[in-house]
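Summary for the steering committee. One of the milestones for this cycle was to obtain a three-dimensional model of the protein with uridine-5'-diphosphate bound, which we needed before selecting residues for the alanine scan. The sequence and ligand used are listed below.
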Amino acid sequence: MVQIVEPRHPVSLADYESVADLSATVRSLRQEAESRLAGFDGRRLVMVNSTAQGGGVAEMLPPLLTILRELGVDAHWLVIETQEQAFFRLTKNLHNLIHGAGDPNLGAPDHAVYDRVSAENAAAMEDFLQPGDVLVVHDPQPMGAGALLREKMDIAAIWRCHIGLDRETAETRAAWGFLDPYLKPYDHAVFTAPEYIPGVLAGRATIIHPAIDPLSHKNRHLQVHDLVGILANSALVKPWGPVMSPAYSEPARRLQADGDWAPATEPEDFGLLFRPIVTQISRWDRLKGFFPLMEGFVSLKHGIEARTDLDEHHLRALQLARLVLAGPDPASVDDDPEGKEVLSELCAAYSCLPPHLQADIAIVSLPMSSKENNALIVNALQCCSDIVVQNSIQEGFGLTVTEPMWKRAAVMGSSAVGIKQQIRPDLDGLLIKHPGDPGEIADGLDALLSDEAKRAALGRSARQRVHDNFLVFAQVKSWLELLTNTTA
Ligand code: UDP
């Protein structure tokens, strides 16, 4: 079975063009499309993945396809469907193996399941496809079907892999060994980072980075009254009084610099009300590095009294700094036993801290009942944070890094492969070499908390870096290049 999905994205290119620092980008994208698509006449782009809702790929496709359509590409979206549980178990295992986990014992029965479902999906897609189409297949689930169609029809086929590990292990060898025969017919592959390209695809792969949509609820510009409203409604302002209020914090001054807001009066004692906020927002996953981050923050706080190197401003920033650890409410996320476990272990570690340190740390579980509401809370939290941390032990590409960079936060990321693609160290943010080392985390936070000018400079450069590389327009441009260069 295959579903034809209509991509729904409420924003048009004209909407993006009306935003000050996006208009030139959209104009140049229109020109690029015009010149590139001149030779693409009559050909269609057909993207296929395994789910229309939920997950990063399903979220990324509607803006990508809608913009491509508006630029003149005849773009379509198919979703494969099957009831075979054994197929889902197998492809979930392949997904884990490509990440370096999972069961590497794959054999003939696995190939039999994969071949059977791939043949069914290929048959269902065949009626939709036309000669000359460029088929883009996302991740391992529809790869087998795409391979069969490429062998049978006069089409081009590209495999888009959203996952990867930067080293070879028994697990990754098992996955690529299994997938090798299905990869062979593909004309080209696309990965998120060069480190993820397996040997079998060397010379046949391109890099396209994931991207964010600057007008989505998660990334659109929020006015100060929106920020306060969103945080107050989600009970994030109240417990801390002025802590989360942007009125006296550095992000408020960033907004002020945008000409968006001006305080009626200057606070009498700015320093007393100034509360630097350090935030990490992620799924409650062990690989996101929440535990060493909390330990690092605690060790920074513990050491303050003994230090003789602090001037008054630095001392005050360290004393007042607060840490927010936020993630989706596990009760509202299906099928995430690890999330519940990690959150409760984190809360247990927190409850062992002395009360004065507990008062400086908030563990927040974000409501997930409304996607829009959750996105707005994430947006507001990132906007009101002075430092956003992403201390991942492993990260394919952290959207939680791109999002705060776009909001001009000072970002401190780990040196996980995906994050190294995003942050140029000391230019767009800080990179922590060892995300498991609380001492290094404490030093990084200390350096950023002591230097407001550095935070502002990192934030400015981060915004520009995202503008140039990680907005949906850069992604569309890369796809235009690839499509118009790929022929069957
Ligand atoms: N996110 C969210 N609510 C949360 C936690 C995370 O909406 O409570 C979002 C976050 O803003 C980002 C995405 O989930 O857009 C996570 O993507 P990322 O690439 O950082 O990591 P992944 O979860 O895919 O490993």
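Key point for the committee: The two ends are 25 Å apart (CA to CA).
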